[in-house]
Amino acid sequence: xxxxxxxxxxxxxxxxxxxxxxxxxxxxxxxxxxxxxxxxxxxxxxxxxxxxxxxxxxxxxxxxxxxxxxxxxxxxxxxxxxxxxxxxxxxxxxxxxxxxxxxxxxxxxxxxxxxxxxxxxxxxxxxxxxxxxxxxxxxxxxxxxxxxxxxxxxxxxxxxxxxxxxxxxxxxxxxxxxxxxxxxxxxxxxxxxxxxxxxxxxxxxxxxxxxxxxxxxxxxxxxxxxxxxxxxxxxxxxxxxxxxxxxxxxxxxxxxxxxxxxxxxxxxxx
Length: 270
Fold this sequence. Notes:
The protein is an alpha/beta fold. It has 2 domains: 3-161, Rossmann fold (3-Layer(aba) Sandwich); 186-260, DnaA, N-terminal domain (GMP Synthetase, Chain A, domain 3). It is 43% helix and 12% strand. The strands form 2 sheets. It has a 4-stranded parallel β-sheet, with helices on both faces. It has a 3-stranded mixed β-sheet with strand order 5-6-7, covered by helices on one side. Helix 1 packs across helix 2. The protein is globular and about 55 Å long.
C-alpha cells in the first residue's frame, strides 16, 4: 500500500477511535478534507460546526454550508458578534481569536454530548508563524491530520482523488489579516475588503489579498500575475470598481502576495 494511502488509513483509525466529534469547519481545503474523512470514519457521529463572524467572508460561509448539505453531514452555524478583544486588531489576534472560537466550539460539543473537537492543522503549518496553535493546545483541541503526519500536498492530492471541490482552492485567512495591527477594525472596512476581493476573484484572481490602509487598498497577487492585473484593470476598471466600494486610492503591491504582510507594517501615528 502506498505511503499516502497508509497516512489516510491512519487518519481514519485516529478518527474512528472516538465516540464522535465536532469538526471545526471553515470550508477551506483542510477542514473540508477532514470533514470528509470524519464522515467516512464516524458516520452520523461526525458533526460539522462553523462559526459566523463579521471577519469571515460570507462567500466562504456559503461554500461551507453547501458542501455540508450536499454531503449529508449535520452542520451547525454558530453566530458570534465581533469580540471586543479583537476590535483593535492586536498583534496576537490569531491566538485570541482561536481561544474565543474554539471555546465556543467546545461548549457546543458539550451540548451535543460530545467531548472532542477536531480541527485541520497539518504538518506544514508547523513551518509557519501560527500563534493560534498555542490556543488549540491550551484548550485540548485535537489536530488529527497533524497526528497522521499529513502535509498540505498530501491533503490536496487526497482531496483530488476523492473529488472534493476544494482540492485546488487557494488558501485563505480571515479578514483581520487584511487590516493593520493595533488599528480599530470596523465592519465597514471588512465589507470593503470582502467586496473588493470577491470582485477580483470573479475576474480571474483566485489567490488575491486586498490590504486595507484606511482610504487606500493595496492589492497583492502572486508575482506571476502582476502584469495580468494591470491588463485586467484596462478591461474591468479595477481602479474604478474599488473606488465604488469606498476606497480613494487603489495600488498594486509590486512585491506580490506575501503571507501576513500587514503584520510587518507599523501603523501610522497620524
